[in-house]
C-alpha cells in the first residue's frame, strides 16, 4: 500500500520508467511536460528506504521543492542534507548527487528538471544505512 | 491579518516590489533565485479579490502550481479558468494573461518563471466582478 505524504497530491503511478535507477519503489506524477517549455515538472514520492542512484543533470539543472515527509539529498563529497516539507534544493549542471526518503518516512518532492540525466551507481546499503535518521 | 492557505508555506512578506502591478495585497516568498539557474521560483499568496495586472513573459514562460485556496487564470481572448489546489498552468512566451484570487478566497501558487515580464493594464473591477465564484 502506498501512503500519501505529499501535501498537494496523492501518489502518482508506480515509477516503472525509472525503476532501474532507483533502490526501492517510487511513484511519479507528471505535472508539466510541454514541448515548448525547456523544463519538466513532476512529483516523485519515495517509500521509506527508497532513493535514486547517483546521477548528474547535464546541460541543465534540477530544482526540488519538498512536498511531504522526510528525505535526504547528497552531493558527491559533501554530507547528506536532511529535507523537510518546504525545503528547496538546487542541483547545478554537472553535479553528481542522489535523493530519496529516510529509512522510516515516506518522502515527496516536486522536481523541476532541465537537461539530460546520466545515471550512475546505486547508493550502497552501507552508505545509506549509515545516515542518521 | 494574513491567512495561510498554502499547504506548504506561511505567507511571505508583503509583496511591495510588485505592488504597482497588482490590485489588492499579495505576499511573496522567494524560494529559488540563483544566478546559475535561468528560472526563478517563488510562492505568491493573494488576499481575496487580489489579482495581478495583465502581463506577458517575454523570451521565457511561467509555470504555476496551485498550493492553496481558489483563484483565477485568464489568457487574453479566452474565458477565465478556475484554479484549485494541485492545478498547474503553463503560460507560454508572449501570451497576455493575469492570475489572482477569487473574490471570497485566499489563493497561493508557486510560480516558476523565465524571461522578462511586461506589465500592462489592470484587470478592471467590472471584468473581475463578472467572474462567477
Short description:
Chains A, B: It comes from Lacticaseibacillus manihotivorans DSM 13343 = JCM 12514. The first copy, chain A, is mainly beta and 133 residues long.
Number of domain modules of chain A: 1
The helical percent of chain A reads under 10%
Write the element-wise H/E pattern of chain A from the N-terminal end onward.
EEEEEEEEEEH
Largest sheet of chain A: 5 strands, antiparallel
End-to-end CA span of chain A: 23 Å
Q: Regarding quaternary structure, how should these chains be classified? A: homodimer
CATH topology of chain A: Jelly Rolls
The SS-based structural class of chain A is mainly beta
As residue ranges, the low-confidence spans of chain A are none
Q: What is the overall silhouette of chain A?
A: globular
Protein name (chains A, B): Cupin domain protein
Organism (chains A, B): Lacticaseibacillus manihotivorans DSM 13343 = JCM 12514
Pfam family, one (chains A, B): Cupin_2
Domain Cupin type-2 (chains A, B): 43-104
Amino acid at each position: 500500500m502506498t501512503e500519501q505524504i505529499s501535501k498537494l497530491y496523492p501518489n502518482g503511478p508506480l515509477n516503472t520508467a525509472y525503476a532501474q535507477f532507483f533502490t526501492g519503489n517510487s511513484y511519479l506524477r507528471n505535472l508539466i511536460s510541454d514541448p515548448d517549455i525547456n523544463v519538466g515538472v513532476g512529483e516523485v514520492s519515495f517509500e521509506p528506504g527508497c532513493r535514486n542512484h547517483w546521477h548528474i543533470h547535464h546541460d541543465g539543472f534540477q530544482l526540488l521543492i519538498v512536498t511531504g515527509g522526510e528525505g535526504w539529498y547528497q552531493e558527491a563529497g559533501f554530507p547528506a542534507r536532511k529535507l523537510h516539507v518546504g525545503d528547496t534544493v538546487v542541483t547545478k549542471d554537472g553535479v553528481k548527487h542522489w535523493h530519496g526518503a529516510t529509512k522510516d518516512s515516506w518522502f515527496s518532492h516536486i522536481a523541476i528538471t532541465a537537461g539530460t540525466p546520466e545515471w550512475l551507481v546505486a547508493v550502497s546499503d552501507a552508505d545509506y544505512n549509515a545516515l542518521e535518521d
